[in-house]
Amino acid sequence: MAKVKLYDTTLRDGSQAEGISYSVMDKVRIAEELDKFGIHFIEGGWPGSNPKDREFFEKISKAKLKNSQIAAFSMTRRPDIKASQDSNIGALLKSEAHVITIVGKTWDFHVTEVLKTTLDENLAMIKDTIGFLIKKGFVVFYDAEHFFDAYLANKEYALKTLIAAQDAGAQAVCLCDTNGGSLPVQITTAINEIKHRIKVDLGIHCHNDAGLAIANSLAAIEAGATIVQGTINGYGERCGNADLIPIIANLKLKLKNNCIPDLQLKQLTRLSHFVSEISNMRVKNEQPFVGDSAFAHKGGMHINAIMKNPLTYEHIDPSLVGNHRRILVSELGGKTGILLRAKDLNYDLSKGDPQTKKILELVQDLEHKGFQFEAAEASFQILMQKHLKKFKGFFELEGFKVVIEKHGDKKITSEAVIKLKVNGIKEHTAAEGDGPINALDNALRKALKDFYPVLAKMHLSDFKVRVLDEKAGTAAKVRVLIQSQDEKDTWNTIGVHENIIEASWQALVDSVEYKLLKDKQ
């Protein structure tokens, strides 16, 4: 199998995902990170479509990239004009990109219904656009839009569009499953039938509308494609694009394709999380290879087997992709989960130790009440230390009060007043916030800042509330999960109560104490 080239389109296709809006500097930071990782081609955007993309190409042209080539994207010239007269093509000339990717119509249905032109004119548009750019000194890739639908509808014409791009000088022809509805067998059948006619590099670009973008991409590679397009974390319009993260991992570890160096593969998890953070999107816990749950084990039977041999329930060593194994503590995990977490904390427990049984019973009782420690390992660590009499509190709460005010149509204001003791010293502070929990968080930090300056380095990064028993109405218990982070780590804490403020306070206190605990060690 030939070495596969990785073509990332996060900055264009990925930016079309609902909820994502990159600034110019966001795009530059992602491009620089992709370059460090070793992505071969980075599609920066469509310089003819908006000022933001034009500015990106200006800035990235000054960056000193080591591994990646920047590609600019556009479509074939419009019908019945020359490529040299098309404004979109003109914008490409100013982009300073070395590679130009041109998308063109492959499906006769689109030619007549969308472009409203003839099949022959569409072929001329492909040839003229690519030929013009080749003469200007660019490397040109051709994206055959809707290729697999086109091939089913009219094989002869779909193939003609590819040959037109090839004859005009395109270095690569990329087959696109634009509607994302093809099956792997359709992908491989089409490629096997046409690849003897294509003399240039063959690429694949899949969307995920049928949930098969990764499978289709890998099937295309096994059938002969040597360029794979996709986005980090599968971001993209509708159901997204092919996710390059598992594609890269499968290429390296399952298909033994040296698409990136082994050392870079260990950065895969970090790359996924970095792009997620810049994109302001939640990291998918269940994402294969790099998600927090990808190598998490909860069932007692699974945990027991994993400790004997990880191959029993893990398809790869998680460290190969920069991830790690997690043993979840829950009522399902039995004593083994308790023992493993105790070992992580350097506590010497055994299955026959009465303390082990007591901790398990405590966990089972708390989970019956609504706690869920598999999602709040920091809270479990504090719980275990308290039970084993190993925990020394950092402050004592004397009381707090939260006031929420709204006057007429004016903005709602929240203020928290808190009284506590630190080393026998009383603190009485107040703070405002965007909401009652934010106000409480601000007041707690304000009271502790002089005693524990390290708290300035942590912040809450996520806050989730779940009603545990909807039938109980306003008297229902709520579960609050808080995610916190500092410059090194991320941790999760939990609180459960009928009162959302109290549940939030429990999680908030655990979060602060965990930070102080880990920095003290």
Write the layout of secondary structure elements.
Layout: E1 5-8, H1 24-37, E2 41-45, H2 51-60, E3 69-75, H3 87-93, E4 99-105, H4 108-115, H5 119-135, E5 139-145, H6 147-153, H7 155-168, E6 172-177, H8 184-194, E7 201-206, H9 213-223, E8 227-230, H10 244-253, H11 262-265, H12 268-278, E9 296-297, H13 300-308, E10 326-327, H14 334-344, H15 354-368, H16 377-387, E11 396-405, E12 413-422, E13 425-433, H17 436-448, E14 459-467, E15 478-485, E16 490-497, H18 500-520
What does this molecule look like?
- It contains 18 helices and 16 strands.
- It folds into three domains: 5-260, Aldolase class I (TIM Barrel); 296-385, no CATH class; 395-451, Double Stranded RNA Binding Domain (2-Layer Sandwich).
- The model has no long low-confidence stretch (mean pLDDT 90).
- It has an eight-stranded parallel β-barrel, surrounded by eight helices. Strands 11-12-13 form a three-stranded antiparallel sheet, covered by helices on one side. It has a three-stranded antiparallel sheet with strand order 14-15-16.
- Helices cover 39% and strands 20% of the residues.
- By secondary structure, it is of the alpha/beta class.
- α6 (147-153) packs across α7 (155-168) and α14 crosses α15.
- It has helices at 24-37, 51-60, 87-93, 108-115, 119-135, 147-153, 155-168, 184-194, 213-223, 244-253, 262-265, 268-278, 300-308, 334-344, 354-368, 377-387, 436-448, 500-520, and strands spanning 5-8, 41-45, 69-75, 99-105, 139-145, 172-177, 201-206, 227-230, 296-297, 326-327, 396-405, 413-422, 425-433, 459-467, 478-485, 490-497.
- The protein is elongated and about 85 Å long.
- β15 and β16 (490-497) form a beta hairpin.
